[in-house]
Design goal:
mainly beta; four-stranded mixed sheet; four-stranded antiparallel sheet; binds iron/sulfur cluster
Length: 273
């Protein structure tokens, strides 16, 4: 029966317990035939990437866990079929004996998940904690996650999650068919604050409408009691944004989330005559 990882980015607090647990499980521990010991520096078989998004004061931090994607059609297996194999449960293993001396394998993974161990002269990566899975236990990273952001189990039990999931690198998904499925991967946000500088007040309850100039999609929000408005998880796009509030002239501005999240800053409304 095939196994799968589910990573719900929205539940991750960035505590890095998983990253540390991977070190705890693999540094100085020989889990042959699945893996030789991981060095204590220079390798992260499980890594939490932190990304600061937006512009002050509208800033969010996203945490994305990266690990071997245990691809069904694994480029690393194609590069070294004699040294990399897939177990019946789908976990992809770099055989520490057969891969000895194959430095080029570290370059074969498009996800950067394989590391070169100079001391042992072997390429290494996440095994999905195969030694624990075989003992009926979850991978250590999954076990220590305090928020349930990491899950591991039978594919069949995750059918709903997998149907709703995305791949870490969507453009590679069809070719590699990863077994690590992501929920709530960060998109962009578009935000700002609506103000009346003349009155030295924020404008609460303003209707904010964002038109995606690439697709025509229209999103609606309302400024809150602090004048703030947010559009979360929007695509990378160009936007035309309309601001309407009772007693004010309608204002239309353009903004882009093509390259990054966008804080439009203070948007001043002017009182209608
Ligand atoms: S993520 Fe990289 S190392 Fe893991 S199975 Fe896919 S190609 Fe191989
Ligand atoms: S242990 Fe869980 S919450 Fe903490 S960084 Fe890892 S995935 Fe995120």
């Amino acid at each position: 029966m095939g196994k799968a990882f589910i990573i719900d980015v929205a539940k991750c607090s960035g505590c890095r317990n998983c990253q540390i647990a991977c070190k705890d499980e693999h540094v100085d521990n020989d889990w042959s035939p699945w893996a030789k010991p991981q060095p204590d520096t220079g390798q992260f078989w499980c890594r939490v990437d932190e990304k600061v998004r937006g512009q002050v004061p509208k800033v969010k931090i996203s945490y994305t866990v990266r690990m071997c994607q245990h691809c069904e059609d694994a480029p690393c297996m194609a590069a070294a079929p004699d040294a990399v194999y897939r177990r019946d449960d789908g976990l992809v293993i770099v055989d520490p004996e057969k891969a000895k001396g194959k430095r080029e394998l570290a370059e074969a993974c498009p996800y950067g998940a394989i590391f070169w161990n100079e001391e042992l002269a072997i390429p290494q990566k996440c095994t999905g904690c195969a030694h624990l899975v075989d003992a009926g236990e979850p991978p250590h990273c999954v076990d220590v996650c305090p928020h349930g952001a990491l899950r591991f189990g039978d594919e069949e039990d995750f059918a709903a999650e997998i149907a709703a999931a995305e791949a870490l690198v969507p453009e590679r998904a069809a070719a590699d068919r990863p077994r690590v499925h992501y929920l709530n991967l960060p998109k962009r946000f578009l935000a700002g604050v609506v103000v009346d500088l003349e009155a030295d007040e924020v404008v609460a309850g303003a209707k904010v409408t964002a038109e995606n100039l690439d697709t025509g999609e229209v999103l609606a929000a309302e400024s809150d009691g602090f004048g703030d408005f947010w559009f979360h998880q929007v695509p990378a796009a160009s936007w035309r944004v309309y601001f309407e509030a009772d007693g004010y002239l309608t204002r239309v501005l353009e903004a882009s989330t093509v390259d990054e999240d966008r804080n439009m800053g203070p948007v001043e409304l002017f009182a209608a005559e």
